[in-house]
Amino acid sequence: MPKNIIVIGSGAAGMTAASAAKRTDPEANVIVFTEDEHIAYSPCVIPWVLEGRTSWNDIVMHDPSFYSEERGIDVRIRTKVTSADGIAKTVTAGGVEYGYDSLVIATGGSVFRPPICGVDMRNVFVVRTINDGKKIEEAMKDSKNVVVAGAGVIGLEMALSMRNSGKNVTVVEMFDQILPRIADKDMADAIQKHLCSLNIEFVLGAPLRAIEGDGVVRGIIAGGKDDNNVKIGCDMVILATGVRANLEIPMMLGLDIGKLGGVVVSETMRPYRKGRPVEDIFVAGDVVQCQSAIADGPTMSQLGSSAVKQGSVAGKNAAGDNAVSGAVASPWVTVIGDLHIAGTGLSENLAGWYGLRTVYGKANGYTRARYYPGGKKMMVKILANAETHMMIGAQLIAGEDATGRIDWLTDAIINGTTAEEFLARAENAYCPPTSMVRDVVISAAEDLCDSLKGRPRK
């Protein structure tokens, strides 16, 4: 008989899992349940839709009819899974019980709403779905002053989107730098300087304390208590305060939850129950806790690229394959104004959290040959473990072409390459319109090797 495969969630992990399962076993019955009404789109593009660079219709790649007609996958939108039974191997969705042979949980995450006064007021928004984006778009018509709470990647993208749409924008962040977990302070300060030049204001070291208003937002309070806080008037607040895994279904099934708040999974994306692997359930995307490729410990890799990779493995294995997803370095990239910003592996702060002592190398240069027109400045920083000399992280700020370079560094980091090995083996393709004859990445690696030997910086 055909295998019955149920997927819960229609984000990048869920839809990738459904397609991978169907490719692996074309005879399988694959059903996707999702509470969302839109599927097959990237939430990452919402800031650019809001400033008019593209449209809501353009970012939806496929609808349920496409999956039904072209791939033989049954997608049920606006349908909540209300219960799951791992013993009976059933889920209840839309009031109907369905049996499964394999279950894929890709329930994603939700934006953390800080437990403060006024957080449920009108004109307080999160950025997670198309409907979230449409609500912000509607409110923008009558809003002039916007506060973005959180200076991570999404927060900065939204701040710039609002500024490019003619709003006055202030970003408040509880840490003393922007991009606090994924960028080192020297790199973060350079990015902040660029954003300040675009007339975005920052209040750092100031957690959001309260949102004020009379049913509609009138302002916020950030910072410490009493005299050590800041009041900012505004008519819109956008919460970019991090994502928490949606654990309702995993907890129904008694799956093990890790110390970082995600479902613990093996490299085959199988979860555990009381420390033992569960054979017929697979979990992928923002809801999982996975293994760091750099440090001996867990990490959360809540990125679209990670979701697709994990979803593919989960879907294949749900259909009977034995694919694996390795430990992660979590490379990321974004475009902030005229800058391409990217990173991979650990920042100095995260390395310290894992108990690692770091040494860094840094270099400045250009994206093209110095004499070729149109070249942009580039700054590369590479971190290494001071004891083992293994490369553990990197960050890059450039006017163009950051992605390929950060992918290059990610590969070296995942493979446990030392700084000396990288410098000895690294080669870059050269053409004046695309790179310097010696890429800035290699110059940063040379500076790193000098630092590891205790040589003075050039």
Report the structural category: alpha/beta
Radius of gyration: 23 Å
**C-alpha geometry:** globular
Largest sheet: 5 strands, parallel
The helix fraction, in percent, is 25-40%
Biggest sheet strand order reads 3-2-1-7-21
Mean pLDDT: 95
Task: Please report which band the strand proportion falls in: under 5%, 5-15%, 15-25%, 25-35%, 35-45% or over 45%.
Answer: 25-35%
Distance from N terminus to C terminus (CA atoms, Å) equals: 69 Å
Low-confidence stretches: none
Q: What's the tally of helices?
A: 13
What is the number of E strands? Answer: 28
Keywords:
5-stranded parallel beta sheet; 458 residues; alpha/beta
Describe the overall structure.
- The chain has 458 residues and is of the alpha/beta class.
- Helices cover 27% and strands 29% of the residues.
- The chain has 13 helices and 28 strands.
- It has a 5-stranded parallel sheet. It has a 5-stranded parallel sheet with strand order 9-16-10-11-12. Strands 24-25-28-27-26 form a 5-stranded antiparallel sheet, with helices on both faces.
- Strand 11, helix 7 and strand 12 form a beta-alpha-beta unit.
- Helix 1 (12-24) packs parallel to helix 9 (304-318) and helix 12 (419-425) packs antiparallel against helix 13.
- The protein is globular, with a radius of gyration of 23 Å.
- The mean pLDDT is 95.
What topology emerges from the helices and strands here?
Blueprint: E1 4-8, H1 12-24, E2 29-33, H2 46-50, H3 56-59, H4 64-71, E3 73-76, E4 81-85, E5 90-93, E6 96-99, E7 102-105, E8 109-111, E9 124-126, H5 130-140, E10 145-149, H6 153-164, E11 168-173, H7 185-197, E12 200-204, E13 208-213, E14 217-223, E15 229-233, E16 236-239, E17 243-245, H8 248-252, E18 263-264, E19 272-273, E20 276-277, E21 281-283, E22 288-291, E23 298-299, H9 304-318, E24 332-336, E25 339-345, H10 348-353, E26 358-366, E27 377-385, E28 391-398, H11 403-414, H12 419-425, H13 440-452
Parallel strand pairs: 1-2, 1-7, 2-3, 7-21, 9-16, 10-11, 10-16, 11-12, 18-22
Antiparallel strand pairs: 4-5, 5-6, 8-17, 13-14, 14-15, 19-20, 22-23, 24-25, 25-28, 26-27, 27-28
Helix pairs in contact: 1-9, 12-13
